[in-house]
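Feature request disguised as a bug: please show the residue count (155) next to Putative membrane protein in the output. Example input:
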Amino acid sequence: MATDSGPNPATDKPSGLSQNVAWTVHKGSFIAHISVVMIGHSILRFAFTKEIAYQLTPLLYNVLTFVFFHLIVGDPFDPRFNNHSFWEQMVEQIGYSSTTIFFMVFPIVMFIVINHLVVWNVYLFYLTILSLILVVVPKLGFMHRKRVFGLGHEE
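Example output, currently without the count:
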């Protein structure tokens, strides 16, 4: 007689979610995300001064998340989402939940915190503001299934 030991969080994914999106709703995904940013910042500290490393952290974060959340299209695990960016997959599968709100607010909060820590290089400041706009605007509801400058759009 088999006994059910309950769900296994290491192998189970929430019902109905693609594996591509399921990791975002697991406990610890926010901490892992913040940890990756901190590790990236630490790597930048080896190559640049403290001030420049702090200024490059949100800029590089915004560029990388724009590419991975909005530019790359497709889901290797679920063909229903082959024409969706990662952000669109998240919104369609989990809606505007705490997960999507975290990914929307995190770059803004990071910019505000870093803004209080450094004296900005004017060029990096404007580049970071532009990158912040380009990474936050596509996450807003009115931009769902639209492409910024047509990037990531498949004919």
